[in-house]
Design a protein that fits this description.
By secondary structure, this protein is an alpha+beta fold. The chain has three helices and ten strands, in the order αβββββαβββββα. It is globular and about 40 Å long.
Length: about 130
């Protein structure tokens, strides 16, 4: 009969879980009906709707979440690629196709222009310059 050290195997499992969390690019979206696990690369942008958040995905779906946009932004900020462009909007910077002086930000896969606050226009322009060739 083999004796197994459960304390040691549990510690290794926790270490593996910590490693997975450090490289994970998944986000758990809480809705009224369910919890949905998505890859953050699927997100185009987020829109604040009071204490709710509407998340627009690249496949055309949108999900109304029961947590505020600021909660999701704090999570996405850790991953990078997401920037708050206005009080009510967060965008995936990889989806930006144009920063227009009057229209705001235009996104590749969405037929919308999102407003950009005056304070953030310069910051976003520098960010776009830093990720371009």
């Amino acid at each position: 009969m083999k004796i197994v050290d459960l304390g040691n195997s549990m510690q290794k499992g926790q270490e593996n879980f910590k490693y997975y969390r450090s490289v994970s690019r998944k986000l758990l979206l809480s809705t009224h009906e369910s919890n949905i696990l998505i890859d953050v690369d699927e997100i185009g942008y987020l829109c604040a709707e009071g204490s709710y958040c509407r998340i627009f995905l690249l496949d055309g779906r949108h999900i109304i979440c029961s947590k505020p946009m600021s909660w999701y932004f704090n999570k996405l900020e850790q991953v990078g690629h997401f920037v708050r462009v206005h009080h009510g909007y967060v965008v995936n910077i990889d989806q930006v196709s144009e920063l227009h002086h009057e229209k705001g930000i235009l996104l590749k896969q969405f037929s919308v222009s999102l407003p950009v606050s005056r304070r953030k226009k310069g910051i976003i322009k520098k960010l776009l310059e830093s990720i371009s060739l």
